[in-house]
């Protein structure tokens, strides 16, 4: 199973971005999305270090709510 993580772009330097999710920051490649206009504050889905899709803040929030439910169910 593949899992994409919603992250918010904090800073962009060329095809690289510093992204954050739930207090965790990672360097992410924007190379696969070079045809998309991206800016700090945007949300992207990150898979194995690459941004693969731009999403809305609501979509990011919904995904995290679902992930949190899955994590809670695993601890029950």
Defining traits:
alpha+beta, 76 residues, five-stranded antiparallel beta sheet, elongated, SH3 type barrels
Question: Globular, elongated, flat, extended or rod-shaped: what is the shape?
Answer: elongated
Radius of gyration: 13 Å
Strand content: 35-45%
Domains counted in the coordinates: how many?
1
Q: Characterize the largest beta sheet: strand count, sense, and whether it forms a barrel.
A: 5 strands, antiparallel
- Poorly predicted ranges (pLDDT <50, ≥5 residues)? none
Amino-to-carboxy terminus distance: 22 Å
Helix content: 10-25%
The spatial strand order of the largest sheet comes to 3-2-1-4-5
Q: Count of DSSP helices?
A: 1
Name the CATH architecture. Roll
Strand tally is: 5
> What is the CATH fold-level name?
SH3 type barrels
Give the topology string: H per helix, E per strand.
Answer: EEEEEH
Task: Give the class from helix and strand content and strand pairing.
Answer: alpha+beta
Mean pLDDT: 94
Look at the structure and give the CATH class.
Answer: Mainly Beta
